[in-house]
Amino acid sequence: MQIRTRLTFQYLLIGGIIMLVASMAIYLSSAGFRRDDFYERLENKAVNTARLLIEVDEIDVDLLKKIEADNPVSLPGEKIIILNYTDEILYSSDETAVINITRHMANQVRLSEKMRFRQDQYEVLGLLYTERYDRFVVFAAATDTDGFTKLRNLRIILLFVCLISFVIFAVAGWLFAGKALKPISGVVSQVEEITFASLNLRVDEGNGTDEIARLARTFNNMLERLEIAFRTQKDFISNASHELRTPLTSINGQMEVLLMKERTGEEYKKAVSSVLDDIRNLIDLSNRLLLLAQTSAGKQNSGHRPVRIDEVLWQVKEEFNKLRKEFQINISLGKGLIDSDLLVVSGDDFLLKTAFSNIIENAYKYSGDNSMDIDLEYAGGYLSIVFTDRGIGIPQDDLIHISEPFHRGSNVKAHGHGIGLSLVFQIIRNHNGSVSIESSAGKGTRVILGFPQITV
Length: 456
Prior knowledge:
Elements: H1 3-55, H2 61-69, E1 79-83, E2 89-92, H3 103-112, E3 114-119, E4 122-130, E5 135-142, H4 145-192, H5 211-259, H6 265-296, E6 305-308, H7 309-323, E7 328-333, E8 344-347, H8 349-366, E9 367-379, E10 382-391, H9 396-399, H10 420-430, E11 434-439, E12 445-452
Parallel strand pairs: 7-9
Antiparallel strand pairs: 1-2, 1-5, 3-4, 4-5, 6-8, 9-10, 10-12, 11-12
């Protein structure tokens, strides 16, 4: 069921319930007013009749019957019965004994002084009439033909009004729902026009303040993220293809040159060694690309566990120095790190090793004195690792792009693939950490990693 149809039904249901409740209230109020008014007329009639019979000496039963027979204000089907204290009938206009009066009823009137009840189509009022020396029970009965006719007419009118109201509510609900949903229909139409080739389009946010504007703004934010993701993916594929093409082209060229004529054993060995270097370079690039793709997926948190950062750093130092003994790595702990629990973070030790190794690798490539300082500090619930080298540094224009894959500084275009630091940024972000880089050309670089403390 469409939302417009559902809203119309809800509008009709709410309006119908209100109309039914209002109609019932009107009818019940009118019925109560009719009943009270009729019984009040019965009471006036009963009191006047009893007063004429009992207090006026000149009027006897026969004369009273003649008076009542000619009375133009008599109620329809009016019956008056007057009993004395011994329950003898002093007066009765009920010639055919339509109203059944029992001694119990008379006693009940004497006790309560007034009672109401129905007998068939008659409404009966019993009341106690007292004078100075005696007490009489008077019963007055009649049919409120006019009152019930008015109630029947009121029922017809209310029923007709309810039916007309239902039709009006249905039409009004349909129009109201259409008007209310028109902005959403506009948003849907605009969204349907957006494809992967036109992610630069945005949805109109209308007045910018209501719920529709919030929906449009949410769509626009999603489209912006999708556009960035598609553009990043496109750039990633383009750059990866370019980076992979270079070593493959080099390998292909060397093999073709090698096969052009007979070579000596030494020449073959030299060519194979060069090809092997390109293959190693290609394997390293492939591994980095795969790791970058995995970390970009943002699903590594499930494998995190408590890790001692200082132990990971010492392992990286040991493994790095096995291959490059000439590079000196100095690790120092701040004064606030006496408690070993402050060195524990939640993470993946393999990914952390990769991030630390990439930072140290960059320092090794571009450091002037073959050394790097690594300082661990703790403050404000955060563990900071500061990597400091005294290399060629990074120009200011390149710092804003340093986290982008395949971006290389303008002063190091002949080295690396531009993946190392972008991989560091992605790994640290997946560990809920932060990365900041301070550098200037010719003055070295400081890479600061921050990790939130965890409860051990």
